[in-house]
Write a structure and sequence with these properties.
It contains 18 helices and 19 strands. The chain is α/β, with parallel strands linked by helices. The protein has a domain of 150 residues: Ribonuclease Inhibitor (Leucine-rich repeat, LRR (right-handed beta-alpha superhelix), Alpha-Beta Horseshoe). The longest helix has 17 residues. InterPro entries: Leu-rich_rpt, LRC31, LRR_dom_sf.
């Protein structure tokens, strides 16, 4: 299989997107959202939901003395003008400036405006890679916005001096609850250790994804945990050097310190270099985390053969709802150890074992050990399913909100078995990429759509199924019953190419029956310029992103009367 065609390289490989997928989507968004002249930013930025406030967990913000009314009006006018220049609306409590192409000069101007924002609680300047090296321009004014509770600086090319400046600035933000420095390779090292020492007790979330953290940083993280009694979310994914030394002593120290983080609800260690030995230290701490609900250990192939070190302690994590072990090279022994403990995880709703080929041989005992009535996600893409294991999977399908069997060739010609097991109005995501589907499979899919069984479906991935005849595509596109569909992917694999002229008119006629559709992927399908214009006219009055091969047609830019906020 070509590298470009591998399942790990596609967004559909896992239900929760990996940090790498997040980075790539942010980069694509940044490129596609720019206007030809000047800056462009959607009216509302993408915002990650924050945990609801816990009783008695938040101190009252004490803003500095208010300036005289005249000065306040003039200052607010400057704030509004600055944000309007960036395509943003002024908000006294939130500065959402992600993807704004901010420069060092912009930072200086922004810093001068902070005195007019005494009620500011959220600052997001993520994905502005030109501000790296100049962060002190704004952090030196943090004393003017001491009530900030959320600070996001993802993907800003921060260096050691920036981190040092931020560490000093954090001394003026005693109410900070969320800090996100992800995707800044210059964060790891000595500068980070000084910053961790400045974090204060109200902090509830710390995100350090892909920061090139070292084993020395893992020791510093361990020392930090004891000083943050409210820490709920810790994400250090995509830092493969965390477990670097041969005996893993530094990481073991960090893992042991987690036992003190009793409020922890989310722990993400994806692609962090975990080994079978490091799982033993981690497992010991798990039994002391009664509130843990999400555990992500995915993309750690070196833990293969050692999962039993962890599963012994998993039984004590009574409230665990999500366990992610995709792409971990799990062995048959690993899976058997996991299956033994699954009946004790009565709160489990999501288990990701995708991209582990040995899973295909244990699907029946796996499904039998799960609390099926509450399971919502069980992706088994790239799991070498056999006919027997595919049949066993249908036992869980009626309860699942998301079904992903991509890259499983056994699905082709047998899709009816899965579709007939679906519970009407329950399924919201169906991924069938590279399943060698046939025209008969899609005709059966069309029949299920007409019955209304997929009325709640939001994501349908039929990509990389180039062997389907034209009448199969036409049947699905004409079926209706997909009023809730938001994302439809019909792309061919990178090495393929075919004309969509036979079914494109059916698609155009069927679009009114898919009013919620916001993304339509048609990569590697060919169409004449006239056919593309016809599709463009059919989507002009709606916010629909159409992806062809290397270009992207965005109908949101084609109609000035529909500049609606992005969700």
């Amino acid at each position: 299989m070509e590298a470009a065609d591998s399942p790990q390289g596609r967004d559909g490989g896992s239900q929760r997107r990996s940090p790498l997928d997040v980075l790539m989507s942010q980069i694509r968004k940044k490129r596609s959202d720019r206007k030809p002249l000047g800056r462009f930013l959607s009216w509302t930025s993408e915002r990650t939901g924050t945990p609801e406030d816990e009783p008695n967990c938040r101190e009252e913000t004490r803003p500095g003395p208010a300036p005289p009314e005249g000065e306040r009006d003039v200052g607010w006018g400057r704030v509004s003008a600055f944000l309007q220049k960036l395509g943003k609306k002024a908000d006294s409590r939130s500065l959402s400036l992600a993807h704004c192409d901010l420069t060092a000069t912009d930072l200086l101007e922004l810093a001068s405006l902070l005195q007019s924002l005494p009620q500011l609680e959220e600052v997001d300047v993520s994905w502005n890679d030109l501000i790296g090296g100049g962060l002190m321009a704004i952090t030196s004014h943090f004393q003017l916005v001491g009530g900030v509770r959320t600070l996001r600086l993802c993907g800003c090319r921060l260096d050691g001096e920036d981190v040092a400046a931020l560490a000093e600035g954090l001394g003026y933000t005693p109410l900070l609850e969320i800090l996100d420095l992800s995707w800044n390779s210059g964060v790891g090292g000595g500068a980070l250790r000084s910053l961790l020492g400045k974090l204060q007790p109200p902090l509830r979330e710390l995100h350090l994804v892909a920061c090139q953290l070292t084993e020395a940083d893992s020791s510093a993280l361990g020392g930090m945990v004891a000083t943050l009694p409210r820490l709920c979310v810790l994400d250090v994914s995509c830092n493969p050097q965390l477990v670097k030394d041969s005996n893993g002593a530094a990481f073991n120290q960090f893992a042991a310190s987690l036992s003190q983080a009793t409020p922890l609800t989310t722990l993400r260690l994806q692609a962090s270099g975990l080994t079978a030995d490091s799982l033993a230290a981690l497992g010991t701490s798990l039994s002391s985390l009664p509130s843990l609900r999400e555990l992500d250990l995915s993309c750690n192939k070196h833990l293969s053969g050692g999962l039993s070190h962890l599963t012994f302690y998993l039984a004590h994590v009574a409230h665990l709802e999500s366990l992610d072990l995709h792409l971990c090279a799990l062995t048959r022994a690993d899976l058997e150890a996991l299956i033994q403990v699954l009946p004790t995880l009565t709160a489990l709703t999501r288990l990701d074992l995708s991209s582990n080929k040995e899973v295909g041989g244990v699907v029946h005992p796996l499904v039998s050990s799960l609390p099926l009535t509450q399971m919502r996600r069980l992706p088994l893409n790239s799991c070498s399913l056999s006919q027997e294991s595919f049949t066993a999977l249908t036992l869980a399908v009626p309860h699942l909100r998301s079904v992903d069997v991509s890259w499983c060739k056994v699905v082709g010609g047998r899709l009816a078995l899965l579709l007939d097991a679906l519970q009407p109005s329950v399924i919201v995501e169906l991924r069938l990429s590279s399943c060698q589907l046939t025209a008969d499979d899609l005709h059966h899919l069309a029949a299920v759509c007409r019955r209304g069984s997929l009325s709640s479906l939001r994501v349908l991935d039929l990509s990389y199924n180039g062997s389907v005849a034209d009448d199969g595509w036409s049947a699905v596109l004409a079926a209706g019953g997909l009023a809730s569909l938001e994302d439809l992917d019909l792309s061919l694999r990178p090495s393929a190419s075919a004309s969509c002229s036979a079914w494109l008119p059916v698609l155009i006629r069927g679009l009114p029956q898919m009013p919620a559709l916001t993304r339509l992927a048609l990569q590697r399908w060919t169409a004449t310029s006239q056919e593309r214009r016809r599709l463009g006219r059919g989507t002009k009055s709606r916010a629909l992103l159409v992806e062809w091969d290397s270009d992207i047609t965005d109908s949101r830019r084609q109609s000035s009367s529909h500049d609606t906020p992005e969700e």
